[in-house]
Predict the structure.
Amino acid sequence: MVGYLHSNDYGVKLLTLSYEYKLIPKPEQVAIIEQTLNVCRKVWNFALRERKDWISSRKCAVDACSLTSEYIIPADASYPNYHQQAKSLTQAKKANTELKEINAQVLQQVLRTLDRAFEDMKGKGFGFPRFKNYSRMRSYVYPQMLKNPLREDAVKLPQLGWVKMRMSRPIPDGFELKQARIVRRASGYFVIVSLQLDVNIPEPPLHGHVIGIDLGLEKFLATSDGKLVARPKFFNSLHRKLKLLQRRLKNKKKGSKNRRQLNQKIATVHQKISDTRKDFHFKTAHHLCNQAQTVFAEDLNLKAMSKGMLCKHILDAGFGQFLNILSWTCWKRGAHFAKVDPRSTSQVCPRCDAFVKKDLSIRVHHCPECG
């Protein structure tokens, strides 16, 4: 479960929660989900190819003409943005029976996601969007729900009707279901529902007992109260099993049934690692909230840390995911959470603020000023 506050177009504060539930679909509903994922994949790949061809047609060497970089598209053709591709999709649905069977808003969301991927590539420095095969297209969104879509043990989805699910936690009173995302994982199908409520909840102020935490690899974290939390090695514990499975995978023929079954086993191991790590992060975050009402953490440059010689261990620890979960858990439980500048935090005495220079070989702080 995650949540955040944002304002709509009218400036009204909205609290949005995302709850995840395990679906128990019937065989005919599974067929519809798989068909929808397949069509979404085709729409993504077609739209991406259209954009990629337009970009490639505008590249040409200044000193030579290349067969791979000529103007294969007319010079006056406009860039295929979201609005143009959505219009083309509407026209294609009239002639293509496969597109007719899929909810129109679901396919429009695919084009919106692709458009957002190109914006992130330009604005945030992300990589170029990639084509998707069967295993890479794993989810799609219903942006608009039907009337009264929830009951005790089922959710009502467009085209699927009532789908049984495990109600692992109740829906909070007053919240309205806005959209649903269907996700296919190694352990089955899940639905992530987005709930909204018009409410203005202030951020928790700094109060109560205060602790600071320091994340690391020798110990997962150390608190200013002197308590240490050991680091479970999620990936290393199953690394040998993954290595054996992936070694067998390279000898399987592409597209064969044996390769699909082996890929399923590998995906199951990866999901077990991910679920175990997230469970540990949530339990640790709640443990910290039980100890204090205000938590401070270093604002680490996790992107740079994940590129060093210890990148495998840093990614296995999942510091970024833990800090996000800790921030949400503190907000939910009324505790104050903040990040501080990590520079010189190990050089300054926490009692008298004296600067005591030390290198990494010195693991115990001893202040000559205050003792």
User: Anything to note?
Assistant: The longest helix spans residues 257-291. The two ends are 45 Å apart (CA to CA). The chain has two domains: 1-63+73-201, 210-340.
